[in-house]
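Q: Could you write out the predicted structure for this multi-component system? I'm mainly interested in how the pieces pack against one another.
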Amino acid sequence: MKIVTKIFLFFVIAALGFFAIACGSKKVNNGEVNVFIWTEYIPESVIEAFQDETGIKVNLATYSSNEDMLSKVKASQTSVYDIAVPSDYMVKRMIAEGLLSELDGASLQNFSNLDASYLNRDFDPKNLYSVPFMAGVAAVVVNKTMVSEEITTFFQLLEPKYKNSIVVLDDYRAVIGAVAKSLGYSFNTTSPADLKRVDSAMALLKPNVKLRDSDSPKTAMLNGETSIGYMWAAEIAIAMQEKPDTFEVVFPKEGAYLFIDNFVILKNAKNFENAKRFIEFILRPEISAQISEQYPYVNPNKEALKLLPASYLDNPASNVPPEVFKNGEFIKDVGQSIEIYDDIWTKFTR
Amino acid sequence: MGGAVFKKKNIPLFAMISPVTAWLIVLIAIPLVYILAISFCSTNADHNIAFHFTLKNYIRLFDPTILGIYSNSLIVSILSTAFCILLAYPFAYVLAKTTPFKKTLMMIFLMLPFWTNSLIRLYSWRTLLGKNGYINEFLVYIGLIDAPLEMMFTRGAVILGMVYTLLPFMVLPIHTAIDKLDTSLIEASKDLGANFWQTFKNVILPLTAPGIFAGSIMVFIPSLGFFFVSDLMGGGNNQIIGNLISRQFKESYNWPFGATLSIMLIVLTIVCVRLYTKSGGKLDELGNI
């Protein structure tokens, strides 16, 4: 019996210890907010400024695709993450799946700083669940010293003379969508006949693509690995800042891929109030401007735009012209057609 | 009375074993059964798993594109394993025969790079092998080539990445095998008039073959699944089985097909391990490095 008692005692003590740790960490939790955000999207200095001002500790975790974020949010318990930053179509899906808390965007401080054209979009018609953070487009960047021809359309990238010289985003909706658009279809086409033609066009693009990279596609352009790139305009803006005379940004005539990334608070978030304070903090003009200076995405905060330097405002890659937004298209869920998209992409990447 | 003795003997045993058993059941057995179950399911319009029986996913395995990726993956794995053997064997041999001081030194040099994250180490290959990387610059500078070579983002680069990441898993089992080698057998072979190559072919190689087998298993199987190596070194244009699986679970929202591909990978692994045990390998030696 002695051994059994000892083992029993061991488990009791272990369990008590576990509870002590669990309770201990709960106490710290009161002054926390868990932010789940894209890589290279928020400067360390902004996080520190928030922590210094409010005393709320920010735990940052990052992801590099909406789908990645969704599967992690679904797989983790409540309040592992309080805030996430999904794109437009993903906000819609998360609302439909009941993953978000109502935060009533309009009731937040500083909400009025936002440009109305980014608000009340169809993915969240009253901004009940989401607050715009940054927006952007996917565009083409050309190394002028390596490419003599003028590029104006995405269709030109299918020409055989650009063999093995293009870097594209590792994002199947962005690439397949751009090819569909260059053939005159929608980014969200579900017609099997259209997609069949898209598939053939992708076979022309395939030999031209040297690599696919979503994390830092500008690197391949900066070190001369590729002469043409298809990536987020903000990445292009950073590349242009580093080598202003080499790179040129092209918004394909056919129309560009648009996105709006939004703050959301997840269902049953323990740190709901802290999360709200964090979003309000980011909506301040000077903070928002500070973020755009480091990561030059399209800033929906109209008060912040007034504070940004000429280097941001005069560069079309960061301060994207309004007509690009007018011609562009947002991604929507394609339902069962996703299997055709997957097939096209598997062929493209094999 | 008998019952009491039984209890006395077995309760501590249960107490000790049950945490591990619970761990194995909850974290390995149940997920595997779940994977097997959903591999026979399909998805509905909301991209969630629809629980009705279908063989669709298994039929899709015979799609030419999927078969193409399987064959590419097998080529990469076979070549990576072969290069690992060629590189690791001489190294392991010297490692086993050298003085203790040099042995420690060589071990440190082998293991030290592995304290750095493998992603960072793979990124550094980009700097070396890139179109305007150091190797190309050097070769152009000494006049060996006129235009930079395309070394990065090719199948060769993927194989290089695999060999670089997995080499220690080949060195260690071979080293163990050579270390255990009875030197008197080599001496006997020499006494009987065999030269070095004859001794190597007829004595050393057969006796160390289990180590080579064990190492091959440890290199071949992970190299089928290391999708980040193919992403970073192949630029995503040299897909292996691991890439395919990872994409089904993420971007394509097709967990059932991802599960089917995972089951196939498990089957492939079991086949490899069976071949290994059939040819005289011991399972213990896979873990005994």
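A: Regarding packing and overall arrangement: Strands of chain B lie at 42-43, 49-50.
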